[in-house]
Model the fold of this input.
Amino acid sequence: MADDAADDVAGLPTEVGWYLPKFDTVEEERLHRKQRLAAGFRVFAKFGFEEGVAGHITARDPERLDHFWVNPFGVPFAHVRASDLVLVNDQGQVVEGDGGVNVAAFAIHSAVHAARPDVIAAAHSHSVHGKAWSSLGRLLDPLTQDACAFFDDHSLFDDYTGVVVDQEEGKRIAHALGGNKAVILRNHGLLTAGHSVDEAVFWFATMERTCQAQLLAEAAGTPVLIDAEMARLTHGQVGADVAGYASFQPLYQKIVREQPDLLD
Ligand SMILES: [Zn+2]
Done:
């Protein structure tokens, strides 16, 4: 069987990113990526993940691989359109679009994009349950089917040194992320990474709710954990790249129908 047609147990192709749309030109791919990114900000706004000027989702440029697209500083997530996004180079300079870039966005995300060539997008915000959970300095437990997306696939940045403005600090965060899909930044919040914007945004939304679920469960009693073998199996189902990508699609459809100007 040819490599790219190899089937796994579930009968799905195993080629990396087989489910992602293909483009004839880099311009089409860039526009698609920017529209997904704008949709990600609108979804974050809907979920209430915004806290002042904190929070950023970034998407690697499909051509200039050490550049990424990000929200312009101070623009509400709910207003971000594809044309509002700014392109930042590996020195933190805005080279396309109007507006500045949050210094923490550059320090953290540039390090993540540099350390993980497989990562197309990374998402971070100061969402309430994520930051509450982050103060505990613990990894999430496999309490629910959804939580298994993060089983053996997230880490803890077990330090807090103020607002991340230093690129060295960004590198330490990227190191803590390792090959995982997410990292809990202690006393700060969550950060997720994906092989598409869709994935990074969905992982963030579901991780935030996983934090909420564990906080609720532990406040109410002593939760029963899913055993490691079953958690690993479930991770292969709900935690697969394609599952993250697919799970974003209903959110994307909903937000585009409701706020079509995000595509502009
Ligand atoms: Zn932050």
